[in-house]
Amino acid sequence: MQTLVLTFVSLGNVTTREAIDWALTYPKIVKGITVIARVMNDIMSHEREQATDHMASTVQTCMKQYGVTVEEAIEKLKIVLEEAWMDMMQDYLEQKYPMTLLKKGISFGQSIDFFCKREDLYTLPSNLKATLTSLYVKFA
């Protein structure tokens, strides 16, 4: 949430005091982003983190709460992610708040999705090298 609010503040004059106050009320789009960030990161980093002394993750909590396997917990958490996206899109489509902020919120969620969808690029950013190279280097 703090990173998203800082993103809003970085927009300068576009972001009013009312917009920040709105973001701090934890609307659906902000809640969705925080859920997506936490759950996607926990799904991606679960195995690696369990190899060391680490605090319980969302995956472990889900496993314990429902008495399910890792795979089943991840499937349940994917439903939570889908619901978070639907909530975000509802706020976006209702357009009750400044569109610039709503678009930034959606873009922020998409960035989290990119960083955590296939591998943990947030914790292991060196894995981004091939992707960034393909974006900026023209092959003959």
Sum up the structure in keywords.
terpene synthase activity, globular, 140 residues, Farnesyl Diphosphate Synthase, mainly alpha
CATH architecture assignment:
Orthogonal Bundle
Q: What oligomeric arrangement do these chains adopt?
A: single chain
- The CATH homologous superfamily is termed Farnesyl Diphosphate Synthase
Number of domains: 1
Order of helices and strands: HHHHHHH
Which structural category do the helix and sheet elements fall into? mainly alpha
Output the radius of gyration: 17 Å
Q: Count all strands and give the number.
A: 0
Report helical residue fraction. over 70%
Mean pLDDT: 84
| Distance separating the two termini | 43 Å
CATH class: Mainly Alpha
Low-confidence stretches: none
- Range of strand content: under 5%
At the third CATH level, what is the topology name? Farnesyl Diphosphate Synthase
| Main sheet summary | none
Total helical elements: 7
What is the general shape? globular
GO molecular function, one term: magnesium ion binding
GO biological process, one term: terpenoid biosynthetic process
Keywords: Metal-binding
Protein name: Terpene synthase metal-binding domain-containing protein
